[in-house]
Amino acid sequence: MTEGQTAPRLPAVYNLIALETVGSTMAEARLLADQGEDAAPDGTLIWAREQTEGRGRRGNTWDSPKGNFYSSLIVRPDVQASRAAELSFVTGCAVFDTVGEVCDPGFECRLKWPNDILLNDAKIGGLLLETKAEAGQPVEYVIIGLGVNLKSHPKDTPFPATDFVDQGQMIPDTVFLEAYARHFMEWAAKWVEDGFEPIRQQWKWRAEGIGKDITVRLNDKTLEGVFEDIAEDGALLLNQDGNIRKIAAGEVYFAPAKEG
Asked: Which residues, given as ranges, of the chain have pLDDT below 50?
């Protein structure tokens, strides 16, 4: 924190590391997490006001100027690696509730499978998960990256983007951080106590596109169909003329995908 700034007030379960500038909160979190639980206990939260080497899913660059929100949270759940992806849905629900708390009434937040946050039909944020685990063993750690456009957003993106200021909302980053930390703690507790199914149902209620025609871009092909449901493991179920296809990862568009 710089002089004159008030440190965020987070629940005691968090170990906050606040940085003005960092290459990537994900890279910083990974360096700490790999040093073991003493260096990075469960709940270690890296928060930076600027990233110089931010990245999103599939290695895409994440534009990270000052003024937006960037964090990476290290958690060490006692689950198998196959369940780590469930934390994306836990986090999505937490961010949905965070937006509902910090925004004025009338702003529609929706969750876009698998890891995007929408506000009024445009992308305002995204999640990124990294997991370290040995085969057949519980995870060593999961890092949950979150980027949210508070004051600016990239232009000319394949899916429309926005930011809170563009939507008429001035959200201080400390306010967003405090709300997010509280809501994540609440949703993570539900996940630990009740398992993934209640989380899955709550995520679906907050989701965009279920029951609608969608386009899904995979690495080697593009598919079209109806967004049927979310499977018990979080995969997308695509209905193609009555045939249900299970998709573990892809980019979803609610209109024909842009060329180029």
From this structure: 1-4, 57-58, 257, 259-260
pTM here is 0.90
- CATH domain 213-253 topology: SH3 type barrels. (2.30.30)
Who's near 156: CB < 8 A, 6+ residues apart? none
Q: So what's the pLDDT on residue 52?
A: 87
Q: Which CATH architecture has domain 15-206?
A: 2-Layer Sandwich (3.30)
189: its two tokens: 């507790």
Q: Find the farthest-apart pair of alpha carbons in the chain and give their distance in angstroms, rounded.
A: 61
Segment 196-223, tens digit of pLDDT? 999 999 999 999 999 999 999 998 899 9
Could you give the residue range(s) of every CATH 2.30.30.100 domain in the chain? 213-253
CATH 3.30.930.10 maps onto the chain at 15-206
Residue 55: predicted pLDDT: 61
